[in-house]
Amino acid sequence: MTLAPVLMRQGRLVRERTPLLPEPPGDRFGLEPSAGTTDALRLTVVGESTAAGVGVDDQRDALPHCLAVELAERWCRRVEWIALARTGATAGVAARELVPTAPHDQDIVVIVLGVNDAMKIIPRKTWRARINRLIDTLQQHLRPGGQVVLAGLPNLGNFRTFPHPLRAVLGWHSRALDRDLRRIAAQRSAVIHVPMPAVTWPTMFADDLFHPNAPAYRAWAIHLADALDRYACQPFG
Question: What is the pTM of this model?
Fold first, then answer.
């Protein structure tokens, strides 16, 4: 007996019961100052609702700005940053509608995608093809020595907002898509995969118990900066 009708019914109930949080107001681009005197480091974040800052009240607490602040402090470089993100974006939507507006001559591009693909049960072959095409395009927007960062997916099997068996299915699929990201990064130059950091329930979640809150976004930014400290090709620019 197929689980599809059960999963569809559970998914509909979750959507009906989960508060719909807006994307926060504020600038999605800026220049984070630093005492450094070299050219600005250029950072682009492309992605879904977590890249758009859903879960906080202002873009200054969202992941892109938090990461810019962290990199400026660590590397003593001014950071020129931009966020290209939309709630509900999949890898396909990002490639069609977000990436064409990405600036060129970037040093770091962070891709934050996969949760919507997992929730839509996008086939893994399709997912891999779309992510590879996305990387191909974004690498054309990099300066020599630039870096693409694939932010890892959370394990949706740990999200208590989902009932079983939906939670088990989403957990399996999100882990599978994340393994694909890790393998893609291992096979490509100047691409790294950074697993999602550990989170605590419910203290690091927003009111919808689905998106990160401000402390979680800051912790995520630190986690990404730690990975860039270890793996990124420096100096940039």
Answer: 0.94
